[in-house]
Amino acid sequence: MNLQEFLAMGGYAFYVWVSYGICFAVLLANIVLPVMQRKQLIRQLAEKQQRQQP
Amino acid sequence: MKFIPDPIGRFCHRMASPPHFYALSGKLLPWLTGIFLILLACGLYGGLYLAPPDYQQGDSYRIIYIHVPSAWMSLFIYIVMAITGAIGLIWRIKLAEIVAISSASVGASFTFIALVTGSLWGKPMWGTWWVWDARLTSELILLFLYLGVIGLYNAIDDKRTASKAVAILALVGVVNIPIIHYSVEWWNTLHQGPTVTKMDKPSIHVSMLIPLLLMAIAFKFYYVIAMLQRARLELLQRERTAAWVKKLVSEPSNSSS
């Protein structure tokens, strides 16, 4: 099986690849967003702490 | 009173302490992520490349490798959320409340994935994106229950009160779980019956079954990873004035990790 055949998914390429695309986009967002928000929160708290006790 | 050593109780108490949970989850996450990625790679390779096309559905059936594990996780996470919610409600354990609300967003995501991939599978196989049958409708109600839990939690400022309200909503919604599970047996539906859980005689070939089970285990690991990441954020937000958070924040090495 060559790459083109693999990507064609027997004529169901649209349905299969859109499914997988949406799935992994949602799963990735669920990891990236809380990690980014937590880092931002730690930065904010650190800045606040430095202002209070220079 | 004589002091009785209670190693299990002590262990549970230590685990439920926020700074310990934060540190331990930070240590565990790289390992969990590594195992998840290996399982995911094996499952995808087996499901998309090694497994043969279905004799009736051709290659479109390959959506099963994300659709079915997502649907399983949508039910599993709801039950975890209801149980941890109840533990938080009864024993007022802060960590149980955090695990419950951190599970909600992951569960909502899996429910959404199950519905969307099911729709994308239904279009070529049934000729329609959506039917109002028992399985699809009860799964949609599950999505609304998750969104209700998240919305209710965000609407109440005091997070301990919010956790109580959310736990009660989650417990009431548990009635939907057996309805989803048995919907394909109780009602006539377009949705196909179970292919895997008939353990005596599964109507799925082993070359298709193994990648499906690998994906199911991978998604379990994913749930733990995503839930822990959300819980770490939630914990810091709730405990922002606690001494351990002040100490954590003041150490420059932590601001990057």
Give a structural overview.
The complex is a heterodimer of chains A (54) and B (257). Chain A is an all-alpha fold and 54 residues long. Chain A has a domain at 25-54. Chain A has helices at residues 3-8, 13-52. Chain B has 257 residues and is mainly α. Chain B is 75% helix and 0% strand. Chain B has helices at residues 7-15, 18-50, 64-91, 94-126, 134-155, 159-173, 176-186, 206-238, 243-250. The longest helix of chain B has 33 residues, at 18-50. Classes of the chains: A mainly alpha (54), B mainly alpha (257). At the A-B interface, helix 2 of A face helix 3, helix 4, helix 8 and helix 9 of B.
Notable characteristics:
heterodimer; A: 54 residues; mainly alpha; 2 helices; B: 257 residues; 9 helices; 75% helix; 0% strand
Strand runs of chain B, count: 0
Multimeric organization: heterodimer
Shape of chain A: rod-shaped
* Percentage of residues in DSSP E strands of chain B: under 5%
Please tell me how large the radius of gyration of chain B is: 21 Å
Give the class of chain B from helix and strand content and strand pairing: mainly alpha
Classify the helix fraction of chain A into a percent range: over 70%
Q: Structural class per helix/strand content of chain A?
A: mainly alpha
Topology, pairings included?
The complex is a heterodimer of chains A (54) and B (257).
Chain A: H1 3-8, H2 13-52
Chain B: H1 7-15, H2 18-50, H3 64-91, H4 94-126, H5 134-155, H6 159-173, H7 176-186, H8 206-238, H9 243-250
Give a quick rundown of the structure.
The complex is a heterodimer of chains A (54) and B (257). By secondary structure, chain A is mainly alpha-helical.
